[in-house]
């Protein structure tokens, strides 16, 4: 993709951001990666922006983007097992700096490296664990670079995925966390 094409794509991205939400960043990254063999971005699920995103992807003639319908939670492990990496993205809003999105823990538990376009506490978790590549929220170029980096080094991607899984198993085990909470609460009552 030459500079002119990239600039036109980024302008369409800017205009589309308002009507398609933050996932337009993913389509802009797909536009940058369109000629990369072996990289396909799969958007799984539903949402009010999906029809506009699908139309925009069709308008851009993105051969590397697939839209799949939502799956029941019981089938998500199969979908994650089919992925080489997973993207976690939220709007760059200060409030979101304090959230721990469940999907990030799902990705880590599945042993998949996370391309994280979220700032805040969840970024600290992913960075500390070495579980993926954080990128600035809203930065399609950085998102594309991170996807490309993971695709070009399967060993690194696998190591990040396993590091994430280990982190979830050791630091975020729900029964263990519940037991610790119970101990704290019991200590407060005494």
Question: Could you characterize what this model shows?
Answer:
- By secondary structure, the chain is mainly alpha-helical.
- Helices cover 57% and strands 10% of the residues.
- The chain contains nine helices and five strands.
- The protein has helices spanning 3-20, 24-32, 50-60, 76-81, 102-109, 121-129, 140-152, 154-171, 174-189, and strands at 41-44, 65-68, 86-89, 114-117, 132-134.
- The strands form two sheets. A three-stranded parallel sheet has the order 3-4-5, with helices on both faces. Strands 1-2 form a two-stranded parallel sheet.
- α1 runs antiparallel to α2 (24-32), α2 (24-32) packs across α7 (140-152) and α5 (102-109) crosses α8.
- The protein is elongated and about 70 Å long.
- The mean pLDDT is 90.
Order of strands in the sheet with most strands: 3-4-5
* Structural class by secondary-structure content: mainly alpha
What is the averaged pLDDT score? 90
CATH level-3 fold name? Rossmann fold
Tell me the number of structural domains.
Answer: 1
Number of helices: 9
Number of strands: 5
What level of helicity do the residues show? 55-70%
The stretches of 5 or more residues where confidence is low (pLDDT under 50) are none
Under CATH, the homologous superfamily reads Glycogen Phosphorylase B
Task: Give the CATH level 1 class.
Answer: Alpha Beta
Helix and strand string, N-terminal first?
HHEHEHEHEHEHHH
Largest sheet: 3 strands, parallel
Bin the strand percentage: 5-15%
End-to-end distance = 66 Å
- Assembly type of the chains comes to single chain
Computed Rg: 18 Å
Q: Judging by the overall fold, what is the CATH architecture?
A: 3-Layer(aba) Sandwich
* Morphology call: elongated
